[in-house]
Amino acid sequence: MEGQGRQARDDGFRHGEVGTTRLDRLDDEHYPAYTTGQAAELLGVEQPFLRSLDTAGAVSPQRSSGGHRRYSRHQLGVAGRLRELVDEGHTLAAARRILDLEAELAEARAEIARLRRLDAGGTPNGDGGPNGNGGRTGTSAPAGDDGAAGAGRAG
């Protein structure tokens, strides 16, 4: 865009919706906007660390049409967390497992919150639904059902 008007430039990436502008992509945490050098600087790590994450399959950046790695904000978050765990003394394999377990825990907590909203008469997304009962057609949940089915609590 250097003095040549506002011509669109092909950045080598094919994703996003029709009509998406380049600026809209910056809001997408999965858009590969950062070079290896930029990512390393933002994270305070050396470039070889990022390349080692790619080699190990821990963080797999997209490639530009020229074959250069491009990292998304989401990937920078993952790489940063892996760096913290490695700095704490974990192996990369252990750090990856910790990240997997953290993600599973977050999903389980979100599911519990969703079930609690349903149990309280809302909808899974918390909007109350058209009937005020989350769209359920039956009566309330059976006595003693607190929405934590399968949570492993002993009674």
From TrEMBL:
It comes from the Bacteria. Signal peptide: none annotated. Pfam families: MerR_1. The keyword Methyltransferase does not apply. Residues 7-29 have a biased composition (Basic and acidic residues). Keywords: DNA-binding. Residues 33-101 form the HTH merR-type domain. Residues 123-137 have a biased composition (Gly residues). InterPro entries: DNA-bd_dom_put_sf, MerR-type_HTH_dom, MerR_fam. It comes from Amycolatopsis arida. One of its GO terms (molecular function) is DNA-binding transcription factor activity. Residues 1-29, 54-74, 115-155 are annotated as: Disordered. This is MerR HTH family regulatory protein.
